């Protein structure tokens, strides 16, 4: 029949099935339900645990099992040396540490809010490290790891969550656009930027990050359409962290998200989002496609939001500890660490040095935030227009006079 | 049973929703995270547990989709109450609201009705990040076919929502989120009056302050502070933004001769402009000063650490009062 | 590889390929380029001509070739008696005649605008006749044939194009919603309505019509998402008439549109939109799925807008006569007529009676429109709100007083 | 070369686009049917032929996508000029315009610029079906970060578009479609003044009429008709809606003491409200009558056969003038 039925779409095909099954079986063979592990090693060796309830588990690219064992994939290989491997480890550890520090700073009242990336380090570092400096990134509000890869000063990321600005870094100094809060909007900006890249004849790639929830927004669908029609060099990087606040991915789709792409005329792929090597390999391939005029691609990084949606959220209201525990066994950092240790690519000294670097970085961030000045009241009239606006000038002047009247009062009061 | 109880506004709304759902099986709740989580403000807390997933619907993350399907459900005979998570996220649904929801009754020459309520937690003062503190009411009030209201206390929150749900027209229900979890007021035992009527909440003779939603409290504070200086200020809680109850404002201004309108939304093209224009027309010979407006500036809502300066707080309202009285 | 590539998505599968290829070959065998035919018979026998330039031609369901030959399809059969067949012919002829009459009325200044359905009669009658009275239809502005099937008085369709109302019929009297001009919006209304049907436990199906251009709108994508997540009994009926005003379908997608559905988790299918039997069969099947709780489906009816986009449009600016000529050879009415004649299901008397009925209908429509009164000025204040609005009352009263002041003047003038 | 020529507004805009594209290779045109067809109003006629598909871009049928990708192109250094096919179809793009385009410069503390022009053929009077005759300017003017202008004649159409494209801020360019194909005026040989300045187009002493876009002609007709009755009416072409050039209006009203604002958009929450509120504040002691507004009613734009009654035509403007002069 000519109907492309759901069932059929879900059936793995040809080589795909073979490999995916192989990988999965290998992982499964080592699995056994286990209580929450405490130490890093224990966790790494722990069973990868069951898939989220009721979710179909299609093939996904994996190069490193949850236990830290390298496996091969017929389509994606990775050429990476020991230094780079250690670099990925360092990136992930520092990112996680930064994230924890930000969460702590929120608890201490230094930030109004913090959206933690805990658990998504591999998805972000793997994709972020696949990029060249001239590539351009359009993030959501959670891409702290990608920002790290782009060289954005971590302290700068905190400004908007402290309430001193709405972003404020210069997107062009690191080719990392401002955080975008309104879900899905940035997919179109990325697509437009990529259309411009193509017009310029450049071989820059553009990365559009968004979440599983965002895939429901019309803007993301329109970005798919525009990117396909103009064959724009944009990679859509969807971090499916299983949740959009309290809503599981089943509230957004009933088939795996990566399959969305085919109906728009470009490839989609699911990658183990907790496997930094697989993410790196797949993103490199997608970016290469973009550079060489092959157009857009959708990557679904299958991962998990280990923490709350933001510090304002209470996930105990909508999900179980079991689920989290199962995902802890797939921790992105632990698995790379296990691999490094097994392969004797990281010794105690190296690991200690990273921990130390983390401490230093965290301290620096803490200090930076605590001394971050509040913006002056008059700043609310700044940068509304590039070329000025008479009403803003008028309101600025009126407010200045009004504020000055208090200064007088204060003086009088003295 | 909320009537008679003293409840925070958020709980009053929760209770009102519960009552509406008990009274009418066609009432549905739709929105992001309204189910298990009970909404990010817990306004719909417990409702899915009691009324089921079929009536308290966690939707995909797509506001146009939410309002568009709510329209379809209304056409099928349901009365959807849609929650938009924050003010700044209503715009993806703007086309469906303005082009479809607002106009469909007229388009059908009255043959179909669109009893859809869109609840928007709005306005600022909660120290939030961008898009979480906006006051977009003017963008809806300008559009024929919509009704817009904003309660300022728990009792109105409870009763006005009942009335909005019973209304056969689309109603945009602006909830002052900064007031959600204050102590709250007692819910009156009966309907406190028609939905689209302003209320004199403090009598005075020298000047009228008109406010709605989150600025009503500030207006009252300003009246109190002014009283200490011997000025008698009348305060109106407008309650309804489309229509605006000009009759009540007119009566007040004919008495006081001076009017200051206070809202958080930017003043430029805001509600205050409409009030000023029409009241000046109606009360031209009574006004001893131009109608003054105290509100937001022509600027994006600023970062949290500046919002106190941006918002029309007590000092800025008193400044407006001073300026009006100086004429 | 795990990538669902475009190329792969386009490859026909299993039984599909076999049958489709067979059909196509059969049709092709009879083909030969031909000049524009004049008579109905000549045209019916004419070659089906080449596919639109550059468009991939995937399998599509066909039960009647352009030459009027019945062919079988492994998945879609049709059980239809002679009366029904003649009924379909009658529906199509009357619809076309009504459409021509409306175009003429526009030329004569009776209408401001008319969007002709010329060429799309099979897509509309085939789908419209698959419905039960309790099913519900959400049309665009071009569904005159579907409206006919629903029993809407043709003259009523003209009101909005004459400028006397914005629709005005009661959607609930024929379960046919008002025409919707803003592209794509109605897909969400249909989905919401279908969600309500499911809540009611009814076995009603809902049809959402839209064009190829509409598939780019975010609203249509969101309708796909909502319908899939809630398994709503809605059938998305996309008339791919190859053009969105001046833009060919390649400006909206680079793969066949029916493939869009799979990525949202429901089946999509392409049907020969000029084959009324195939459209009827496929729509019946889709509606049956909806009724029986199997959720949404997307039908892409592959057809052609023979005329201008509307009477305001000038297609000579953007498309060639050749293209139109090629599609004329696939005319939906001629092919059914050829079939009826070949099978001796329609004689001269029958055909003449339909022509006569058409004339009568056209005359009635013409008279109705010419006597259709302009709305009174005061009507602009009506039906804005169901429960009233103080400002409307005030403006109505003011306007009445203003208008009355002229009446006085006029009287004075007398 | 348009300057010096007499052209209909549509041709003046076409010529202006051509000039802008010749002067700056970064200028792009985007929209539905803007290419081969030259737009449904033929405003972009011939441009794709001369500048290629890479610079005159037929887009998919998705307004949010058009504006969203235009933002991305602007970030990449382009200067997109977007055409929205008709006023009523801008709303699917409203979120991108209001939430992204308007705020991104401020969000980046000024570090990025968004030189995007959105051309909207707007307003009624062309006998069209629903959604083709709306005047949504207030819905954009209320939003900080956007600029809004509307030319009323060919010369302004030409020059203001040049200025809008050169401007580093997003500009919503409202084109009075009912005037597209009239005889048109001569294009002045030099820039006729700053973009955001109103213009006195007829001097008078008894009353001021302020109008913009399609109602400017009506205002002039009203002034002429009034002159026959011995009334001296000053007419302002506001030209800019955000910002509004209050200084010019103020100067006029200080002279005439009376003001009538005329626009097609609904009066409720419309531009006239803002003009009335602010001018009353600025000219309180000069005004001999309240500022009156003549415009659309709080109703969806009516079917074509009633639009003449709905629109603020000559009679309704004269009625407003009479009422203002009666004070
Ligand atoms: C248009 C819009 N609607 C609602 C929200 C509120 N909101 C913020 S984050 C979020 C969930 C996002 O989920 P997902 O896309 O999966 O990203 P994640 O937070 O999981 O990284 C919601 C609903 C928003 N920011 N924007
Ligand atoms: C949101 C929106 N944008 C633009 C238009 C103007 N417009 C009317 S019809 C049309 C093309 C529609 O093409 P398609 O969806 O293929 O339907 P068809 O007209 O071919 O039946 C356009 C762009 C509109 N009606 N709505
Ligand atoms: Mg998520
Ligand atoms: Mg089409």
What secondary-structure arrangement, pairings included, does this model have?
The complex is a heterotetramer, with 2 copies of chain A (414 residues) and 2 copies of chain B (327 residues).
Chain A: H1 6-10, H2 14-30, H3 40-45, H4 82-107, H5 121-128, E1 136-138, H6 144-150, H7 154-162, H8 171-174, H9 185-200, E2 206-211, H10 218-229, E3 234-240, E4 243-244, E5 247-248, E6 268-272, H11 276-291, E7 297-302, H12 321-328, H13 332-342, H14 348-370, H15 390-413
Parallel strand pairs in A: 1-2, 2-3, 3-7, 6-7
Antiparallel strand pairs in A: 4-5
Helix pairs in contact in A: 4-5, 4-6, 4-13, 4-14, 5-6, 5-11, 7-14, 9-10
Chain B: E1 6-7, H1 9-23, E2 27-31, H2 47-51, E3 56-58, H3 63-75, E4 79-83, H4 94-101, H5 104-107, E5 117-122, H6 137-141, E6 147-149, H7 154-166, E7 171-176, E8 185-186, E9 199-202, E10 207-211, H8 215-228, E11 233-237, E12 240-242, H9 246-256, E13 259-266, H10 271-282, E14 292-296, H11 307-310, H12 314-325
Parallel strand pairs in B: 2-3, 2-4, 4-5, 5-7, 6-7, 10-11, 10-13, 13-14
Antiparallel strand pairs in B: 1-8, 6-12, 9-11
Helix pairs in contact in B: 1-7, 3-4, 8-12, 9-10
């Amino acid at each position: 029949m000519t109907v492309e039925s759901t069932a059929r779409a879900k059936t793995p095909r040809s080589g795909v099935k073979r490999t995916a099954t192989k990988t999965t079986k290998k992982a499964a063979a080592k699995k056994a339900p286990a209580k929450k592990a405490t130490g890093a090693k224990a966790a790494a060796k722990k069973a990868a645990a069951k898939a989220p309830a009721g979710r179909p588990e299609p093939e996904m690219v994996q190069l490193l099992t949850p236990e830290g064992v390298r496996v091969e994939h017929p389509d994606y290989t990775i050429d990476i040396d020991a230094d780079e491997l250690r670099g990925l480890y360092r990136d992930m550890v520092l990112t996680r540490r930064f994230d924890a520090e930000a969460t702590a700073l929120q608890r201490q009242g230094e930030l109004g809010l913090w959206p933690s990336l805990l658990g998504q380090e591999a998805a972000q570092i793997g994709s972020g490290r696949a990029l060249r400096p001239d590539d351009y990134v359009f993030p959501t509000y959670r891409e702290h790891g990608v920002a790290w890869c782009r060289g954005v000063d971590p302290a700068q990321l905190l400004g908007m969550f402290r309430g001193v600005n709405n972003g404020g870094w210069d997107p062009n100094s690191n080719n990392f656009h401002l955080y975008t809060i309104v879900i899905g909007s940035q997919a179109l900006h990325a697509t437009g930027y990529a259309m411009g890249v193509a017009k310029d004849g450049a071989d820059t790639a553009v990365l559009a990050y968004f979440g599983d929830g965002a895939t429901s927004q019309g803007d993301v669908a329109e970005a798919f359409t525009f990117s396909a029609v103009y064959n724009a060099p944009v990679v859509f990087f969807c971090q499916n962290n299983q949740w959009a606040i309290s809503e599981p991915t089943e509230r957004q789709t009933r088939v795996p998200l990566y399959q969305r792409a085919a109906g728009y005329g470009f490839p989609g792929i699911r990658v183990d989002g907790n496997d930094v090597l697989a993410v790196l390999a797949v993103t490199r391939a997608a970016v290469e496609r973009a550079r060489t005029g092959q157009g857009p691609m959708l990557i679904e990084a299958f991962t998990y939001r280990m923490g709350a949606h933001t510090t304002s959220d209470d996930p105990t209201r909508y999900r179980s500890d079991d689920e989290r525990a199962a995902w802890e066994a797939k921790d992105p950092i632990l698995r790379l660490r296990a691999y490094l240790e097994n392969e004797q690519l990281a010794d105690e000294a190296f690991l200690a040095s990273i921990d130390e670097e983390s401490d230093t970085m965290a301290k620096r961030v803490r200090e930076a935030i605590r001394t971050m000045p509040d913006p002056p009241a008059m700043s609310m009239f700044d940068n509304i227009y590039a070329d000025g606006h008479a009403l803003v000038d008028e309101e600025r002047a009126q407010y200045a006079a009004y504020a000055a009247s208090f200064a007088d009062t204060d003086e009088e009061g003295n | 049973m909320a009537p008679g109880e003293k409840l925070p506004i958020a709980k009053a709304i929760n209770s009102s929703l519960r009552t509406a759902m008990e009274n009418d099986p066609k009432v549905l709740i739709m929105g992001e995270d309204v189910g298990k989580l009970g909404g990010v403000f817990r306004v719909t807390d417990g409702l899915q547990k009691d009324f089921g997933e079929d009536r308290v619907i966690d939707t995909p993350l797509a506001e146009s989709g939410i309002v568009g399907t709510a329209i379809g459900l209304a056409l099928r005979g349901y009365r959807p109450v849609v929650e938009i998570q924050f003010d700044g996220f209503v715009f993806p649904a703007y086309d469906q609201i303005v082009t479809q929801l607002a106009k469909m009754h007229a388009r059908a020459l009255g043959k179909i009705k669109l009893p859809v309520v869109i609840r928007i937690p709005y306005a600022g003062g909660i120290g939030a990040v961008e898009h979480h503190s906006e006051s977009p009411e003017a963008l809806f009030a300008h559009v024929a076919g919509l009704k817009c209201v904003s309660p300022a206390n728990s009792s109105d929150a409870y009763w006005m929502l009942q009335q909005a749900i019973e209304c056969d027209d689309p109603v945009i229900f602006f909830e002052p989120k900064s007031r959600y979890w204050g102590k709250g007021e007692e819910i009156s035992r009966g309907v406190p009056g028609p939905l689209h009527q302003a209320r004199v909440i403090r009598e005075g003779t020298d000047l009228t302050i008109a406010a709605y939603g989150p600025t009503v409290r500030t207006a009252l504070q300003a009246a109190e502070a002014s009283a200490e200086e011997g000025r008698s200020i009348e305060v109106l809680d407008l309650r309804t933004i489309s229509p605006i109850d000009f009759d009540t404002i007119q009566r007040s201004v004919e008495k006081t001769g001076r009017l200051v309108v206070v809202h958080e939304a930017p003043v430029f093209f805001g509600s205050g402009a409409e009030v000023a224009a029409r009241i000046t027309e109606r009360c031209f010979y009574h006004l001893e000063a131009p109608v003054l407006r105290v509100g937001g500036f022509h600027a994006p809502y600023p970062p949290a650490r500046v919002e106190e300066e941006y918002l029309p707080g007590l000092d800025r309202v008193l400044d407006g009062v001073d300026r009006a009285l100086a004429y």
